[in-house]
Amino acid sequence: MASPDPSPEAQEAAPKPSPSPWTPPLTSTSTALALIPPPHLWPPLNALRSLYDKAYHKWPPHINLVYPFVKPEDLEDAVAVAPFGILEGRRKRNEERGDKIRLKLDSVGVFEHRKHNTIYRYDQEQQQSPLSTLREDLLRGLGHQPEGEGKEYKPHLTIAQSEDRESSAHKFLVEKVGLLPAVEWEVEEVWVLVRDQSDGPGKGKMKVWGKIRLGEELGGEVYGNPVEWEKVFEVETGWKGDGDGQGEVQEAWRFEEGRGFWVRGDGGEKKKGEEEQEEEEKEATTPELLSIASWNVLADFEHSSSSTSTIEQEARYRLILRNLLSPDAKADVLLLQEVTDSFLSFLLSPPSSSSTSSPISSDIEALRRFYPYVSHPPPSQPDASPLPNFLNQVILSKHPFSWSWLPFARKHKGSVIAQFPTIHGNNPDQSLVLAAVHLSHGLTDMTVAAKKGEMQRVIGHLKEKYPRNPWVVAGDFNLTSSSWTVEQAVKQGKVSKETVVTLNSIERMWREEEGLGVEDAWVVGRAALGEGLVQEEEEVMNIDDDMDEGEEGGNRLFAGEQGSTYDPIRNDVAAKVVGSGGNMRPQRYDRILVRGQQVLRIGRFNRFGFVRADQEKGEGYEMGQYASDHWGVRCLLKVVQQDATDQTEKTAEAKSGAATLETSIKLVKPPAGPLSEPGSLKEAMAELNIFPSQGETAKRKAAFQALKAILLDTPPPNQSPHHPSTDSSSEPQRPPTQPPLIITPVGSFALGVHTSSSDIDVLAIGPFSTSTFFSLAIQRLRRASSSPSYSQHQPRILRRINSSTGTMLELSFSSIKFDLQYCPAAHIASHWPRILSTAPPGNAVWSLPALTLTKLKAARDLDYLKRTVPDLAVFRQAHRAVRSWAKGRGVYAQRFGYLGGIQISVMLARVYKGLALRGGVSGVGVEELMVSFFEEYAQFDWEKDMVYDEVCPWFRQKREKGGEKEVYRRTGREAMVVLGWFGPGLNTSGQASVWSVRTLKEEFKRARDMLVKGEVKSWKEFLEGSGAEGFLTGYKSYVKVDVQYWGLSPSKGAQFVGWLESRCVMLLVDLHRRAPGVYVRMWPARFVEADTASQQAETDEQTATEGTGPRDYQASYLLGLDADTNTSKEDLKLALGAIQTALQRFEEAIRSDDKYFDASNSWMSASVVKRSELGNLQLDTRNDWVDEYTPGEDESDSDAEDDEEEEASLLEDLDEAVSKKKKGKNKKTTEEQQQPRLEPGPKLRSAADVMNRLRWDSAIDSSDYVVGYEDRFLGVKERALDMWKTEQTDEEFIPQHRIVYFKRRSDGQVVWDRKMKKDEIFGSGL
């Protein structure tokens, strides 16, 4: 037939009255007689055939009756005579019209071939008859005899091919084919197929040539020309589609509680009278908050052939279920990757009646109730189909949705595109669209190109189909994020440099596409709030980005590893998957991208999947294992409703932490060349020795651990914890209920940006007073200095400093200087470090004295910075680079109004967060960050604007409430404002002056021009240039402050020089006040004569070694003077006189201070000199003097903090020691002296011990006891024991040293009395 429509022009080919003696050979593979099921039965079959059957594109689903068949030129004759065989067979069997043939393909079988296997479906009951009878009739009609024995006909419908029959892939595939629903239909025709022999795109495809009707009107039907089978079935049955159902929009499945299984869509007609209820439910399903979670649950790649492996598999499934039901994982929409048939059947199948009461059944039921809608039903359900792939994506949801499959170029890869009609703003036509992705795995040129193509496919589809809808794209992106992994792949030749550029561009696609406005939820959530609740505390000591190229060990982070979701270092399951010699670096594979469209706002972000198999003992899964090799990710979104009330909006925003983060920071790239090469900055920094060596870092870590062990009185780090240190028995032990003592590093070392010469700042937080802590600390440090266990660290106390900011100990461990401070805060210590991330600034727990908050500020700033900066490794490297530049240019000295560590941190974090929000994390390398940093602050208006973290939630809320003034009220005296994150003292640049700000502006502009305009050729050239030489020649006149010391005590010399340097700040202020028309720039370091520097250094070294002889130290501070362009000559003369006056006053102030200045061993002078009078100066590179701490030096008897805070819980022996010391100051009365001494008994147990015993002993009723305590004004009062507050921060807190007695209510008996030394609880005392 010429027309594609076979029906109107079909040519009848009635059976001939007698068989033809013609017997055509049945050898042609170009033709076939086949049975084809009705097309409405194709989707589940083709869903598998499209992936696993090599003949999918050439054959429809079919059962061959005769194949090979006759030659194409013999088809007409064959079709004409074949029905005669059927008639003859019916006559012999006495069948007038022939029995109807009904097939039910309900079983799975496998044909083994030499190189592969064929997996098929067949009819278990009709294996021999009547299909075999029909085949025999057709063969006889063509003059052929049926097969003999051993060649019996096996009717089957091919689904897939496999290779190794013993492999897990083959076994999984057989199980998958076995899960297909039964295919049942009545056979009414035999189709005649012929292969397309043309050279077009359809070459080799089987087409419909005709058919043989088997009903009452037995005969052949021939089409003039072969026709595509799709067109034939479209005309005859109205069917449209490709037969696999993948491109069709499908409704989500919903669980019917009454029927006990999953149904698609509504699952039947709605009951009458439910219209109003339905409307209410519809309103309820339009949420104010929306949470979306994604997790790669790790498919089982090994088939569970044994009972042991099956038990282990089910145990892991139970562990996954427990994680999914954990509070950190529950979401409105859940995306799962690598889902298998067995896992989904476990997760969604209703339990059998015999197991409904088991805990696991209850968990499964809870999950079903929590997620009533799913994209795929359990394959074990009779009417359900198996999942199409080995590794599948499944969506579970609280809200109804529809979905379709978007295939990628690679087989088995694609995206589930889901639309949620009830989740939208005010326009139902612009509802949420979610794209679930699982991109190609691997780091090769081919796989990276595939990932890029897959992302382009998703972007193109969403732009075309849903241009105005809000989007969420989530799943396993499989984008290698670790810079170390990428660098190693390039070195090993696995990927090219062009592929690295492609990899970095994939994430930027969402930003570079105009008008998309897609944001990374992790970046936004982390930048504002951190990653939510941290699941596992990450030790500061184990995070460092400065690792040798060949080393992988430890918990150090490289660029791109922050926020990792695949971590073989910490996740043993991931380590097993990687195997030995694999990529063991953390990767941020799993992501959630959001296109808000003014409907969705990103809020909190967290990871989940941290519940281990601790409670799975005896159930087949290894103890301590995680459930998957990935962590899951979850994001909380706020759904913006324009017609919502302000109170509703505020409530939803508060719950979600949602934010609309806008930033003016622009990405500026370095010019093409060496400056723009990835890794070029790191190489330059390594060449300039800016990074501390591994040995130096290890030495600092060991020194800190030694200090921590000493202060906590625990065994040294290299000593077994089962063997306590010597004399530890004499040390007081902390009671079990007393809050812990926290020892934590702060500053540059804790942030991971320290240098080889940096001090280590340490903060101790505990429950007792400052005086008690330092008494204890000094005692333990002195003992450790003589202990062999710490001999390698040489611990020394340099001095104790008491100031308005509190007490500090200067220590030395392994020749590394430590500054130790203490903060008495019992509640903070008890909840450390979780309280830092869970208690925002307005929380009542921070209602502490200003001095306490000042000491906690560094730790709080550090915690927030580390939790919110996009990538710590990149940030650290940039921080070190900026500091190195600032030191070289003479603008790194916070005390002189320049930059310090905190200013660089705030300024850099602001730029980095802004860039990451605009272009993603991977699009911002350290080179781009550096150039953008200098560009931003070169054009910054320092006089009007403030530098602060604009995405910080509390700053953002204040700005939205009342503008910049609400964030911080700047005074006219503040020349520069750089705000930290926490108070008190928000402005970290209070020391800045007009002239220091001018200096910074000039240096920022100079650096910007060098980098952007290409005035330097390399990063090394940019960093290594010292500004000191230019400073020495850049001014006509200088203020020169000479300092000299020749005394015997190096500590006094260092103290004098340090004090003089601190007073230079006041000189700068005085000069600006007296001579405002003169620009003054101070270089923040000392200069020495070049000719005598080396000789003086040798002398100092010799005297330091010998320990005798005076030390003659001479140096100078320089202040460059430059006249303002608007200053007249007369004003300059007046200014010079004012400068001379200021210098004279400065000299008098220094020399008149008897505490620091001693004319017998020190001298200073200040004068104005010309450039030619400076001489041959160079920077002083020697370290400051230090000396051993001696008792009484810089020591006071009291501390200002003692009057502010009461002791919360003192160690007993220290309490007595302090008490005796205080009592010793007052003379005893005659009455006290004459009072007879009682014989001592066992030491009275403390009030804290008694209180804990009464509260926690199960044999004692705590409600039957009261506490008698001394009120300062009312005398002895009583309070119920259960009402007694032990938290120091509680308003009703009463120090335990005021407790007088404990009394039993029931009989009035006093069971413990401090004065009478009575103790009926423990039997101590008298």
Automatic annotation (TrEMBL):
<keyword id="KW-0547">Nucleotide-binding</keyword>
<feature type="region of interest" description="Disordered">
    <location>
        <begin position="712"/>
        <end position="742"/>
    </location>
</feature>
<dbReference type="InterPro" id="IPR040459">
    <property type="entry name" value="MJ1316"/>
</dbReference>
<dbReference type="GO" id="GO:0031123">
    <property type="term" value="P:RNA 3'-end processing"/>
</dbReference>
<dbReference type="GO" id="GO:0003723">
    <property type="term" value="F:RNA binding"/>
</dbReference>
<keyword id="KW-0436">Ligase</keyword>
<dbReference type="InterPro" id="IPR009097">
    <property type="entry name" value="Cyclic_Pdiesterase"/>
</dbReference>
<keyword id="KW-0808">Transferase</keyword>
<dbReference type="InterPro" id="IPR005135">
    <property type="entry name" value="Endo/exonuclease/phosphatase"/>
</dbReference>
<dbReference type="InterPro" id="IPR007012">
    <property type="entry name" value="PolA_pol_cen_dom"/>
</dbReference>
<protein>
    <recommendedName>
        <fullName>polynucleotide adenylyltransferase</fullName>
        <ecNumber>2.7.7.19</ecNumber>
    </recommendedName>
</protein>
<feature type="region of interest" description="Disordered">
    <location>
        <begin position="1182"/>
        <end position="1245"/>
    </location>
</feature>
<dbReference type="GO" id="GO:0016874">
    <property type="term" value="F:ligase activity"/>
</dbReference>
<dbReference type="Pfam" id="PF03372">
    <property type="entry name" value="Exo_endo_phos"/>
</dbReference>
<keyword id="KW-0539">Nucleus</keyword>
<dbReference type="GO" id="GO:0006397">
    <property type="term" value="P:mRNA processing"/>
</dbReference>
<feature type="region of interest" description="Disordered">
    <location>
        <begin position="263"/>
        <end position="286"/>
    </location>
</feature>
<dbReference type="GO" id="GO:0005634">
    <property type="term" value="C:nucleus"/>
</dbReference>
<dbReference type="GO" id="GO:1990817">
    <property type="term" value="F:poly(A) RNA polymerase activity"/>
</dbReference>
<dbReference type="Pfam" id="PF13563">
    <property type="entry name" value="2_5_RNA_ligase2"/>
</dbReference>
<feature type="compositionally biased region" description="Acidic residues">
    <location>
        <begin position="1186"/>
        <end position="1216"/>
    </location>
</feature>
<feature type="compositionally biased region" description="Polar residues">
    <location>
        <begin position="720"/>
        <end position="732"/>
    </location>
</feature>
<dbReference type="Pfam" id="PF04457">
    <property type="entry name" value="MJ1316"/>
</dbReference>
<feature type="domain" description="Endonuclease/exonuclease/phosphatase">
    <location>
        <begin position="293"/>
        <end position="630"/>
    </location>
</feature>
<feature type="region of interest" description="Disordered">
    <location>
        <begin position="1"/>
        <end position="30"/>
    </location>
</feature>
<feature type="region of interest" description="Disordered">
    <location>
        <begin position="1091"/>
        <end position="1111"/>
    </location>
</feature>
<dbReference type="Pfam" id="PF04928">
    <property type="entry name" value="PAP_central"/>
</dbReference>
<dbReference type="InterPro" id="IPR011068">
    <property type="entry name" value="NuclTrfase_I-like_C"/>
</dbReference>
<keyword id="KW-0067">ATP-binding</keyword>
<feature type="domain" description="Poly(A) polymerase central">
    <location>
        <begin position="874"/>
        <end position="1022"/>
    </location>
</feature>
<dbReference type="InterPro" id="IPR036691">
    <property type="entry name" value="Endo/exonu/phosph_ase_sf"/>
</dbReference>
<comment type="similarity">
    <text>Belongs to the poly(A) polymerase family.</text>
</comment>
<dbReference type="InterPro" id="IPR043519">
    <property type="entry name" value="NT_sf"/>
</dbReference>
<feature type="domain" description="MJ1316 RNA cyclic group end recognition">
    <location>
        <begin position="1244"/>
        <end position="1314"/>
    </location>
</feature>
<dbReference type="GO" id="GO:0005524">
    <property type="term" value="F:ATP binding"/>
</dbReference>
<keyword id="KW-0507">mRNA processing</keyword>
